[in-house]
Design a protein that fits this description.
Layout (H helix, E strand, L loop, with lengths): L5 E6 L2 E6 H16 L9 E6 L6 E6 L19 E7 L2 E7 L10 E3 L2 E10 L2 E9 L6 E3 L6 H7 L2 E8 L3 E8 L3 H11 L2
Antiparallel strand pairs: 1-2, 3-4, 4-5, 5-6, 6-10, 7-8, 8-9, 8-11, 9-10, 11-12
Length: 192
């Protein structure tokens, strides 16, 4: 978009321009995929990395994997999700990431991809929030209006997310918030 900061990257001798959001998505997914195979029970993980080019520091808190409450058929039988709280450049972002299989979100096509109102259940509080596909591959969903989400993670004991899935109806993920407070606070307090 006009006025959006961009980064220029060189790949195989060519050049391409990546938006700040695209770079954030790539960095998030890279760290997430590198740490996802680690076997952890109910532990949230914290990571901190520095971009060697410009020194920008990225902070991230990641949930343990969450799986659909009801099994899905192939090719979604190995579907899992992660809740990520990410800080880059003084801005905190909350995302749902699907590292193994893309999630075909059922929603409305907009200029930035597919959007849908998704229900979140924080303990007994149920609310709808807009989520937006990042890119066109369905491997992550961004909460563009994530005001207060980090606080809800810190204050809640449980989180259930109801995602509308193309051709499969609503899919429910239960995220563990055990141990989330310590890791998310590191991201929130370090984000400036």
């Amino acid at each position: 978009p006009m006025g959006s900061p961009t980064l220029v990257s060189a790949v195989a001798g060519g050049m391409f321009v990546v938006s700040k959001e695209g770079f954030m998505r790539f960095a998030s997914l890279l760290v997430f995929v590198l740490f996802w195979p680690c076997a952890w029970a109910d532990d949230w993980r914290y990571s901190e990395s520095e971009n060697p080019m410009d020194g920008a520091v990225s902070l991230m808190a990641m949930s343990p994997p969450a799986f659909p409450s009801d099994p899905l058929p192939y090719p979604y039988s190995d579907l899992s999700a992660g809740l990520v709280v990410h800080c880059l450049g003084g801005s905190t972002t909350v995302m749902l990431i699907f590292p193994r299989t893309r999630f075909p979100l059922l929603g409305t096509l907009s200029g930035g991809g597919i959007e849908a109102d998704v229900r979140f259940k924080w303990d007994d509080l149920i609310e709808a929030r807009l989520v937006r596909e990042v890119g066109n591959d369905g491997d992550s969903l961004w909460l563009p209006n994530d005001d207060g989400v980090a606080d809800l993670i810190l204050q809640s004991g449980s989180l259930m997310v109801e995602l509308p899935m193309y051709r499969h109806g609503n899919v429910y993920f239960n995220f563990s918030l055990s141990g989330a407070a310590e890791q998310v606070e590191k991201v929130v307090n370090g984000c400036f």
